[in-house]
Amino acid sequence: MLLELKNLSKNFGKIVALNNISFTIDKGTIFGFLGPSGSGKTTTINIVTGQLKPSSGDSFVLGKNSQNIDQQIYEQIGIVSDRSGVYERLNVYDNLAVFADILRVAKNKIDYYLDKVGLLDRKKQLAGKLSKGQKQRLVLARAILHEPKLLFLDEPTSGLDPTTAKEIHNLFLELKNKGTSIFLTTHNMEEATKLCDELALLDRGKIVEMGSPKEICLRHNQDKSFKVRTTKGEEFELEASKANYDKLYQMFLNNDVETIHSCEPTLEDVFIKVTGNSLA
Ligand SMILES: Nc1ncnc2c1ncn2[C@@H]1O[C@H](COP(=O)(O)OP(=O)(O)O)[C@@H](O)[C@H]1O
Ligand SMILES: [Mg+2]
Asked: What is the Cα–Cα distance from 250 to 105, expressed in whole angstroms?
C-alpha cells in the first residue's frame, strides 16, 4: 500500500474541514478525490504530505506516518500543490537543475522530462515569461523528475485550456503505466471519469461515494432507460421493460434507429443526487 488514510479528521476552529476520511492507494493506480471548492481536497493533501497536522486519525505514505515523513520518503514522492510555483528569474532548464541537485537526479534526465511535458524547445526561456499552461507543465516536470512512486496532484489542470489539459492527462496515464501511483484532486467530472481507476466523492469533508467511476454511476442507475433517435429525426426516452425491448427490436428490424444511448447517470448526477449540491 502506497498511501493509507485511517479516520482522518481536521477542524479549523468550528469549521469541520475533514470528517473521518479513510481510503488506500495501491501501486499503479490513479485515485481521484472529486469534490467542489471547499470540500476538503487541499486539506487532505496537506495532511497526508506532512504539511498540516490532522485533528484526529492517521495517514501513512509508503508505510511511514505522514507526520514523520523524512528525506528518504520525500525522495520517493512528488507533490504539485495549489501553491506550487516556478522560479520566475531562472530559465526553464535551471528550474529543474535546482531540483535535480536536491533530489540527486542525473542532469541528463532534465531534457528527457522537458521533452515529455513539451517544453524542451523552451529550455533557455525565463520561467517568468511562460504562459500559465507552460508553467504548470514545468511544475509537473519538476514533480516527476525523480520518478516518484507516488504523486500528489492538487487540481493539476485547473484553469488550463482543453488541449494542454489533454496533454497533461496523457502524461499521467503514461506515468501510471510505468508504475507510478497518483492521488489526484479535481472538481472536474470529465477528468475524474477519464483518468481515475478509483474515486471518492467528497462533500463538505465527508466521503459520500467510493469506487471506480463506472461502478459509482451504475450503482445509481436505478430507473434504467434508453434515449433513442429514429431515422426520421424523432427523439424519445424508453424505460427498460419487456414491452419496450420488443418495440426496440421491431425498430431495429425496420432500420428505424439512428442512435441509441443508455441513460446511466454521470458522476455529476450522482453527486447532486447524494448531496443535493452541484460540483461547481
Ligand atoms: N488554514 C485554514 N484556516 C481555516 N479554515 C481553513 C483553512 N484551510 C482550509 N480551511 C477551510 O476548510 C475547508 C476545506 O478547504 P480546502 O481543503 O481548501 O477545500 P478544497 O481544496 O476542496 O477547495 C473550507 O471550508 C476552508 O475554508
Ligand atoms: Mg483546494
From this structure: 65
HSE at residue 24, side-chain half, CA atoms within 13 A, is 7
Please state the pTM of the whole predicted model.
0.92
pLDDT of residue 198: 97
β pairing state of 181-186 and 30-34: parallel
Contact 129, 87 (CB under 8 A): no
Name every protein residue with a CB atom under 6 angstroms from any ligand 1 atom. 12, 15, 17, 35, 37-43
Q: What is the pLDDT of residue 223?
A: 83
CA of 43 to the centre of ligand 1 (A): 6
Domain count for the chain, please give it.
2
pLDDT of residue 222: 86
Q: Residue 183 C-alpha to ligand 2 middle, in angstroms?
A: 13
Q: Whose CA is nearest to atom 3 of ligand 1?
A: 12
Q: In this structure, are 226 and 214 located in the same domain?
A: no
Q: Assign residue 58 a region: left if phi > 0, alpha if psi is -120 to 50, beta otherwise?
A: beta
72 with 39, same domain? Answer: yes
**Could you report the per-residue pLDDT of 121-165, keeping only the tens digit for each?**
999 999 999 998 999 999 999 999 999 999 999 999 988 899 989
With a cut of 70, which residues of the chain have pLDDT below it?
none
Taking CA atoms, 57 is separated from 67, 182, 189, in Å, by 11, 22, 28
